[in-house]
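Narrative of activities, Objective 1.

The group set out to show that a structural description can be obtained from nothing but a protein's sequence at a throughput compatible with the screening campaign. Below is one input-output pair from the validation batch, recorded exactly as produced.
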Amino acid sequence: VQLVESGGGLVQPGGSLRLSCAASGFSFSSYAMSWYRQAPGKERELVAAISSAGVTTNYADSAKGRFTISRNNAKNTVYLQMNSLKPEDTAVYFCNGKRVKTIYWGQGTQVTVSS
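Output recorded for this entry:
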């Protein structure tokens, strides 16, 4: 089982990034997928989630209106489009797959928002 995040980097405030998470080794289309983030000294927090079929999405208040989660089950990939980035969005972003009691995590990708 692998979840491999990519697309992180350094961006200026107000900029955009698109994170990707490529899944392999499990039945991706059967799993709800989420993006979490963890800033230094803080707990990991949910950013956005999407149902297995991509019909339902949920966002943290901090992400509403700025971030969009989506998935392509044919490509076994989930995305997080992040717009209007703020310095407080700086964190390591993790991809998560969940089905019943089975949970998988990626290794994370660093997002730094700074001028």
